């Protein structure tokens, strides 16, 4: 989610001193959360004319589960690398669809009056996103450490939703916090300050959109059985807002090119596709400049729908092609089965929308990120990336040293992705499925 900063600065007096907490149920120096996959239908859109870009409606959302307060109250929030503040309790009645409203009501609420450790900061602020917004009241409370019955991250500042619009869940913003975009510690900052992690680095493997296992985020660590090959190191670029070096810090990476590999193995690369790209788990679709959007439309023979999305036959999900994103020497090949989503029973669309503006910039959302394993290192301002695979679990602690992630190699063979995300609709075209299997094993 692309966050609009408030025009004023928030100044907080944090309660208590940073604590060095012992770990219980997790490996020392890291803390991991399962990434939950929550599906909702794109039907019954709440618009006056019922015409809206379906790509803006999250049919698949990636969330983490937090336990906040004393006693702990269970809430779920969207995992969002595109923003940097944590808040809970959305206004469910304003969700974009009835299905999302149902999911919202079932995702848990934080009731401040029910927590003995709640502190009201007395500050209210509006946060705007690419879609929707939230008016929040800032609070301080404890967050229970996963795997522990008693240990908690103390005195964490976060927001409680007062009034939100078009948001089905609260937001777990894990972008740059104190000293970059905020005047208080966000969740990433507190994990490091209170001794849970050895660095302000974390890794994410979202998991395939058809995977039943979900994904994982590891604060302070990496899972070497969630990717293949080596991790490639990139600079976290400074703010890239309309060509300016000012603005909020986010996870910008230099993208070298975009292209496609067709089901019959014909490869092509698009001209003028070198540009900065934002890695944003809070964005369902990816946003690319109009000329790349048009090229993908041509290569997929897609139909531009009234709602702005690119419709393709659902049978294409089972075909063995890829959309290819290159960064330096690394190419992340996103299978059709991950780049195409089924939004309605008979409606499938590419996971892309055009990005408007005078400068070539890309936003790489979930339609790209579920095929990548990414380490976000705020301590050293680096990003590390490899192709996502899932062949088990082997969590390793990351130190704060520069390039520490380069010492870790993925343990998965490239072909093992087949078993992690077999498309549910391959039965539409069984013969195509066979070709898809062989292509992934190459």
From TrEMBL:
<keyword id="KW-0378">Hydrolase</keyword>
<keyword id="KW-0645">Protease</keyword>
<dbReference type="GO" id="GO:0006508">
    <property type="term" value="P:proteolysis"/>
</dbReference>
<comment type="similarity">
    <text>Belongs to the peptidase A1 family.</text>
</comment>
<dbReference type="InterPro" id="IPR021109">
    <property type="entry name" value="Peptidase_aspartic_dom_sf"/>
</dbReference>
<dbReference type="GO" id="GO:0004190">
    <property type="term" value="F:aspartic-type endopeptidase activity"/>
</dbReference>
<dbReference type="Pfam" id="PF00026">
    <property type="entry name" value="Asp"/>
</dbReference>
<feature type="signal peptide">
    <location>
        <begin position="1"/>
        <end position="20"/>
    </location>
</feature>
<feature type="disulfide bond">
    <location>
        <begin position="314"/>
        <end position="348"/>
    </location>
</feature>
<keyword id="KW-0732">Signal</keyword>
<keyword id="KW-0064">Aspartyl protease</keyword>
<feature type="active site">
    <location>
        <position position="80"/>
    </location>
</feature>
<keyword id="KW-1015">Disulfide bond</keyword>
<protein>
    <submittedName>
        <fullName>Aspartic peptidase domain-containing protein</fullName>
    </submittedName>
</protein>
<feature type="domain" description="Peptidase A1">
    <location>
        <begin position="62"/>
        <end position="386"/>
    </location>
</feature>
<feature type="transmembrane region" description="Helical">
    <location>
        <begin position="418"/>
        <end position="441"/>
    </location>
</feature>
<keyword id="KW-0812">Transmembrane</keyword>
<feature type="active site">
    <location>
        <position position="280"/>
    </location>
</feature>
<dbReference type="InterPro" id="IPR001461">
    <property type="entry name" value="Aspartic_peptidase_A1"/>
</dbReference>
<dbReference type="InterPro" id="IPR033121">
    <property type="entry name" value="PEPTIDASE_A1"/>
</dbReference>
<keyword id="KW-0472">Membrane</keyword>
<dbReference type="InterPro" id="IPR001969">
    <property type="entry name" value="Aspartic_peptidase_AS"/>
</dbReference>
<keyword id="KW-1133">Transmembrane helix</keyword>
